[in-house]
Amino acid sequence: MTKLITVFGATGNQGGSVVRAVLEHPVLSKEWRVRGITRNKSRPDAMRLVGRGVEMVEADLNSKDSILNAIQGSDAVFGVTNYWEKASLDHEVQQGHTLTSACLAASIPHLIWSSLPHVSKITHGKLHNLHHFDSKALVEEYIVSVGQPATFVMPAYFMSNIPGGIKKTENSEEYTLSWMFKPDTQIPMLDVPRDFGKFVASALIVGPSSQHVLASSGWFTPTDVCAAVEGVTGKKCVFSEIPVNEFGGSKELFDNLMMIREYEYYGPGAKDGVERSQSGVKEVGGWEEFGTFEGYLRGVGFGEL
Ligand SMILES: NC(=O)c1ccc[n+]([C@@H]2O[C@H](COP(=O)([O-])OP(=O)(O)OC[C@H]3O[C@@H](n4cnc5c(N)ncnc54)[C@H](OP(=O)(O)O)[C@@H]3O)[C@@H](O)[C@H]2O)c1
């Protein structure tokens, strides 16, 4: 009998990637059915998924009853919250708690939670404004504390964050990239649509492990990013480092960049963890390749008019 995975955020980046990874995998696609969650089944994204054989069900992460109804009969649930909708730590934590308690009440055998590192803890309070990381880590702590069987998949820095910061002035033949990183700062990056689902699908195969899976396509530096821009456009790309004391953005963004610059995004020692997670995906799921930043730029048509 086929098993059922219910995917929150199915119409979005992360959830959409999870849906495709399961549907396109030679074994998983035969063993698992996919139920996707949306707040509005009539939106075109949701209807397209129905066309691909996904059962779309309406639920809202703010309503435990709607979640309970939506996850009924699931063998696994993928959970993701969108911090930016309210930009509130408390709100996101509340949604995570609601999802977790619904999973417990419905005896869901495996919750795969889209988590992030607990930055305030890792940095001993030095970086305490990175609320969209801490919130997901607090939910993770709650999942563990109530005994919900789970795996924690942590998405790396989205490649999609980057193109908006690569500028070309109108009459110039040159691109510029200004960032609060050093030229050789190592950034774990994720081509979300292409790669994220592979990590979740592999966790599905393994079963609840209570482990952290670091979902990264690979490590790239600002120098690599500029080289990719040059490779795709044939035009020069110049990187310039914004000094830490001249950064003009929000406290949350500052802490986000500092976490990458000084603590490897996932915390010290992350390189080994990323490699282990990639090896796991290769061994368990049979996926051999992960995205590159140049491939990502080509995919989004960067530099084309
Ligand atoms: N940018 C980065 O580098 C980075 C790195 C790691 C993690 N993140 C995290 O990624 C998260 C966003 O994930 P994403 O990019 O996959 O999101 P996304 O593409 O914006 O999609 C959001 C999804 O969540 C669903 N959703 C939103 N509110 C909901 C609610 N109340 N109830 C049920 N479903 C709801 C939406 O479904 P409908 O609209 O169909 O209802 C949609 O499918 C953020 O929390 C952010 O902190 C970002």
UniProtKB/TrEMBL annotation:
<dbReference type="InterPro" id="IPR051164">
    <property type="entry name" value="NmrA-like_oxidored"/>
</dbReference>
<dbReference type="GO" id="GO:0005634">
    <property type="term" value="C:nucleus"/>
</dbReference>
<dbReference type="Pfam" id="PF05368">
    <property type="entry name" value="NmrA"/>
</dbReference>
<dbReference type="InterPro" id="IPR036291">
    <property type="entry name" value="NAD(P)-bd_dom_sf"/>
</dbReference>
<dbReference type="InterPro" id="IPR008030">
    <property type="entry name" value="NmrA-like"/>
</dbReference>
<keyword id="KW-0521">NADP</keyword>
<feature type="domain" description="NmrA-like">
    <location>
        <begin position="1"/>
        <end position="297"/>
    </location>
</feature>
<comment type="similarity">
    <text>Belongs to the NmrA-type oxidoreductase family.</text>
</comment>
<protein>
    <submittedName>
        <fullName>NAD(P)-binding protein</fullName>
    </submittedName>
</protein>
